[in-house]
Amino acid sequence: MGACPASGWRANIVLYAALAANLGIAVAKFVAAAISGSSSMLTEGVHSLVDSGNQGLLLYGQHRATRPPDAEHPFGYGRELYFWAFVVAILIFGLGAGVSIYEGWQHLAAPEPLRDPLINYIVLGVAAVLEGSSWVIALREFGAAKGDMGWWQSVHESKDPATFIVLFEDSAALAGLAVAAIGIWASHAWGDPRIDGAASIVIGCILAAVATLLAREAKGLLIGERANPEVVACVRRILDSEPAIVRVNHVRTIHTAPDRIFVAISADFDDQLSMGAGEALIERIEQELKTALPMLSSIYIRPEKAEDAIPRSRSADRETARVCTLPT
């Protein structure tokens, strides 16, 4: 698991970069589509406009997620970001993919006369530079956060959807630009405007595939996902190092925000431990856990008898490290 997400400008640099790029690109694409009559260029304009709205929603979700806990939401509002991430996936599917496929179908059914494509090539080139810059920033930030994990595993394990959503959006945008460029060129090279409409449908299919993937990941976060295995293993190591704990029955975790985790622990305490000593032990364990894992925002430890508990070796206890170092 990587380090806790940063706050402020640094944490949102990916979103700000993508928002700035997409707003400028959307205007340029709509102007080019109006001049050239290109269906795929109009589709790309809608795509960039939807992406701009998506970045705005993610920034709004991050702002809402920072609200402190209250009586109605004792664990805070962190998971509101996951809700807006799911909304973003739906918008990509409904507006981005839906409009693209519809526009392409209309262009196939009623092809428009071909016009000078020069303005389209200029806009596509500028868009590729801007989208590529945003993509590089998102790739660099996500690569730094994933640590030693593989790319796909990191997406699946990530609890902060903002970075990987922008990365997938930008990847889809670059693929869409390539398809649009090929469609416009082929339409003029072979004198068939329907090819441009077919390119629009292909762009819509790319967006639909990306939206489906993002919706699946956002749904898992919204329902509630466990902490990464490294965090659970670290909690167990700290508990296992306590001589007064006979057995750790279970460690259950759930993310209440990208950088906040609720952990519930059931452990079998030594029968010889007095109530006062048990309370002191629990308080010390909680402090040790928060020191080792600052993302543990809420810790619940329940002394609970385990049937057929296996006493642990004291020598093994002494060999267990008390400080957990997570990969960064």
TrEMBL record:
Gene Ontology CC terms, in alphabetical order: membrane
Membrane topology category: Multi-pass membrane protein
Keywords assigned: Membrane, Transmembrane, Transmembrane helix, Transport
Name of this protein: Cation transporter
Gene Ontology BP term (one): zinc ion transport
Transmembrane segments: 13-32, 81-102, 122-143, 164-186, 198-216
GO molecular function terms noted in the UniProt entry: monoatomic cation transmembrane transporter activity
Main localisation: membrane
Segments forming domain Cation efflux protein transmembrane: 16-222
Cation efflux protein cytoplasmic domain mapped to chain residues: 229-304
Matches recorded under InterPro entries: Cation_efflux, Cation_efflux_CTD, Cation_efflux_CTD_sf, Cation_efflux_TM, Cation_efflux_TMD_sf, SLC30A9
Protein source organism: Sphingomonas psychrotolerans
Stated family: Belongs to the cation diffusion facilitator (CDF) transporter (TC 2.A.4) family.
Keyword Lyase (UniProt): no
UniProt subcellular location: Membrane
Organism classification: Bacteria, Pseudomonadati, Pseudomonadota, Alphaproteobacteria, Sphingomonadales
